[in-house]
Amino acid sequence: MIKTVGYGARAATSRLERMEFERDDPRPEDVVIEVMFTGVCHSDIHQVKNEWANTVYPCVPGHEIVGRVTRTGDKVSRFREGDLVGVGCMIESCRACEPCESGEENYCEGPNGWLATYNGPMVPASGAEGGENTYGRDNTFGGYSSVVVVPEDFVLSIPDGLAPEAAAPILCAGVTTWSPLNHWGIGEGDTVAIVGFGGLGHMALKLAVAMGVEVTVLTTTPEKIEQAKAMGAHAAYIATDKTSLVPLAGSFDLILSTVPDKHEVGPFLDLLKRDASLVVVGNIDIIDGVDNSKLAFHRQSVAGSLIGSIAETQDVLDFCASNGIAPEVEIIDIKDINEAFTRVENGEARYRYVIDMSTLG
Fold first, then answer.
1. What angle do CA 35, 18, 46 make, to 5 degrees?
2. Which among 62, 175, 237, 303 could disulfide-bond with 308, CB atoms 3.0 to 4.6 Å apart, if both were Cys?
3. Exposed, middle or buried: residue 259 (CB in 10 Å: 0-12, 13-18, 19+)?
4. Whether residue 266 is found in the same domain as residue 347
5. Which residues contact 48 (CB under 8 A, 6 or more apart)?
6. Whole-angstrom distance, CA of residue 101 vs CA of residue 144
């Protein structure tokens, strides 16, 4: 067993605190990674506070992980000691269902679905039809820790040209916005509106601009108007200012909602072109405010998209390295994580906190 130190919560009302636990020794196909940096995602907060009603405690969050390989199993062929690597939201899937065989592990249809990097499996092994998850456990611990052990097929290569601390948020915020931009065929000359301008929203802007897309940002934070333009937005507006939105009717090939909480999307449907889609990536709760009379008369869609596949994650890492794209990050000590959670909830992060795991001590 591998002795590990991390930060986690013991209950929904608990602050994150230092804790010690053990990782399994690597199996032949596993990679042992010393964690260097871990991004702070809003979903970490939702999970720690059991806002999705599926948290298993203790909960050690973190699914934007960058570190160095320290050991590999006998069957590992793609990585060796010293490699700079990343781990995102998934560390396993059933590998046998149609989505997995098609390279879309993030839509795994196996008994447990994909195995989450922390708080996995999404369906506890004890309640799953047909048995247990790959690890035979009802819980996994994430990257707010000194070490992770992950199957080779779920480990990403961090390309040259990406600083490790900047690469971390790309493993979730990056691929979560990259995947729908590509799936819905967005490219040069298209128009996209991004609703919400936080960790996901600012990555969506940077990626879309590099793809040759004309991007409009819709935010509720006035100070972010000029920040969005400085990052390449063609225009930016206050999302709640209906007067400003009226001239935008019928303007967009895609609207990407990155807002992390439950919100109405109805006010934005008028902004879509015919046959266009509004895709929600920030919220996995009930979608309010969808008027099908608006959709039907313009053959529009409201859709969802869930993170991205392992292949898509590698693609977006490589794209960012090739195009000089990096998220806006603020490096924090692990001891400041509870304050960082509060600032994220209050919309004060600019734009992604990344934990320097060397401060774990």
1. 80
2. 175
3. buried
4. no
5. 9, 12, 16, 55, 59, 61, 341
6. 31
Q: Is 311 domain-assigned?
A: no
Is residue 159 domain-shared with residue 179, that is, in the same domain? no
Structural domain including 179 reads: 173-304
Residues 113 and 244 in one domain: no
CATH number for position 206: 3.40.50.720
Whether the CB-CB separation of 16 and 8 falls below 8 Å is answered with yes
Tokens standing for residue 14: 């608990």
Q: Which long-range contacts (CB under 8 A, 24 or more apart) does 48-54 make?
A: 48/9, 48/12, 48/16, 48/341, 49/12, 50/12, 52/284, 54/119, 54/122
Instruction: Round to whole Å and give the CA distance between 210 and 318.
Output: 13
DSSP one-letter code for 21 = E
- Same domain membership, residue 57 and residue 81: yes
Whether the CB-CB separation of 330 and 355 falls below 8 Å is answered with no
Give the span between the Cα atoms of 258 and 205, in whole angstroms.
11
Kindly give the confidence (pLDDT) of every residue in the chain, 361 residues in length, as a single tens digit, with 9 standing for 90 and above. 999 999 999 999 999 999 999 999 999 999 999 999 999 999 999 999 999 999 999 999 999 999 999 999 999 999 999 999 999 999 999 999 999 999 999 999 988 889 999 998 655 545 555 444 444 456 899 999 999 999 999 999 999 999 999 999 999 999 999 999 999 999 999 999 999 999 999 999 999 999 999 999 999 999 999 999 999 999 999 999 989 999 999 999 999 999 988 888 888 999 999 999 999 998 888 887 788 988 999 999 999 999 999 999 999 999 999 999 999 999 999 999 999 999 999 999 999 999 999 999 8
Q: Are residues 99 and 151 in the same domain?
A: yes
Q: State how many domains the chain has.
A: 2
Spatial CA neighbour of 55 closest among 150, 140, 131, 113:
140
Domain containing residue 142: CATH number: 3.90.180.10
